[in-house]
Amino acid sequence: MNSSDVLGLTVQAAKTLLDRGEVSSYELTRAVLDRIREVDGRVNAFVTVTEDEAMAQARSADRRIADGDTGPLTGVPMQIKDNMCTWGVPTTCASHMLQDFIPPYDATVVARLQMEGAVLVGKGNLDEFAMGSSTENSALFPTRNPWDLDRVPGGSSGGPAAAVAADECVFSLGSDTGGSIRQPAALCGVVGLKPTYGLVSRYGLVAFASSLDQIGPLTKNVTDSALVLNAIAGHDRNDSTSIRYDPPDYSRALKPDLKGLRIGVPTEYFVEGLEPGVEEAVRTAIGVLEELGAEVEETSLPNTEHALAVYYIIAPSEASANLARYDGVKYGYSAAEADGMWDALDKTRQDGFGPEVKRRIMLGTYALSAGYYDAYYLKAQKVRTLIAQEFRDAFQRFDALVTPTSPSVAFKLGEKTADPVQMYLNDILTMPANIAGIPAISVPGGIADGLPVGLQFLGPPLGEETLFRVAYAYEQATEWHRMRPDL
Amino acid sequence: MKLTTEEVRHVAALARLGMTDAELELMRDQLSHILESFDALGQVDTDGVEPTRHSIDVDSVMRDDKVRDSLPREDVLSNAPLREGDFVRVRAVLGDH
Hints:
The complex is a heterodimer.
Chain A: H1 11-19, H2 25-43, E1 46-49, H3 51-66, E2 77-81, H4 108-115, E3 119-124, H5 158-165, E4 171-176, H6 182-188, E5 191-194, E6 214-219, H7 222-232, E7 262-266, H8 276-291, E8 295-299, H9 307-322, H10 340-352, H11 355-368, H12 374-397, E9 400-404, H13 420-424, H14 431-436, E10 440-448, E11 451-458, H15 464-477
Parallel strand pairs in A: 2-3, 2-4, 7-8, 7-9
Antiparallel strand pairs in A: 1-3, 4-6, 5-6, 5-10, 9-11, 10-11
Chain B: H1 5-14, H2 21-36, H3 73-77, E1 83-84, E2 87-88
Antiparallel strand pairs in B: 1-2
Helix pairs in contact in B: 1-2
């Protein structure tokens, strides 16, 4: 097997090859590492490549395969976003603050995937502390979109989305606080799932906004998304917000028709600023859903217009509290020259954090400070209730909702960095799902100006099976997921 | 909502973020611009609406008070920027330093 054989290789296809003995995990992992060596100098999807560990894990996976002790992910090369702890492997959050941090434990998701025998080939780049929509906020280097190297991959899981699109791994894990899995998945033409809040353990995920953060898979198709979710979903005693719920086998939800399913199209998601090419692709996709037997109807979610403000008050507020832990004492960067504890704190945080992280800490500190708490933080939490209620009402009438994932296709590096609010608008269609805690998936839904367009489906809490069914039926009826960038 | 440089300096002190004067001024303009984009939120009628802190019902989680293995001390201390033996070293908190 050589590096060209991994192009378009899915979890499902890899498993078939491994089970039949046509290829070993060692050979497969070698081929993926070769692919990384060939293209990552241009894409920059990886912060760390764990070559030696990967080869050792691949050998051990081959022993398991020989013993017949295998699951769907055994021996399959994966990447993990670099804000999830990997025991003994640096976990930087793409920040100077954690550049030398080596976790003494694995995140629960990492432990579960390694228990299944998945092989870690490296850690994916991100916007610093997962704050951003283009991966340009990485303090290390920007990642580039495999479809056009002058364009961003989206963010904050830009490394994972680009790595999957460029076939530098078979699948990856991202985290999604306001769209950080789905928006880059859309911009790179891959599948990205944000599960229901609490379905996947956040233990070992470096916290950004704890009431919004959720881990999920980035994959080459919907089937793989279900297979990876099978491995990572379920209660974890180390995460107090993890739901006590016994997840089903999500792969059983994959059925290629939509007869009797009611799908709503919320008009507020076809916003001013939505690129015509994106709207056209999404309208065409909605036609496909109707042909597959779905009953499609327009609906209205008027509070959607407040999602941006609610999100950019709640997320920075929680971030300002979570990031208070970076004091340069227990771990992480510490300013060398300082006059006592307070000066050390000020300097450590001044040098350790990048501009966007500082902006959000400041915004959150302000929103929580005396005199402003009621007007900003409490108000945002009340409007959050209204947004969640609106979704609850909608899901009385609909099994799922369909929208564009992002208002635009991938934009050029540097195009939106001057104005923070312009950058924030990239997540306007993905933030509502985090605010309400509901699951949402982005699948390839067309091409505009030669670049991928993402189609987003939203479902009720724990409605992942319905989402997979809708996404799978759409995928099987179209060819978009088979399109690959020419690198 | 226009912030003053003094307000921004106060928030930076609360957040323990050292900032140069140039950074303070840039932050003042950017935060003011961001806060202006939130203005419409004040118009939403939220009378009688309960705040949502978590999208799912979260209760206090209790566990049995049994001894569990913790991380090895050396592994935890290995990331400390300053240490002395089995302790994390901190800089002077009180007095002249």
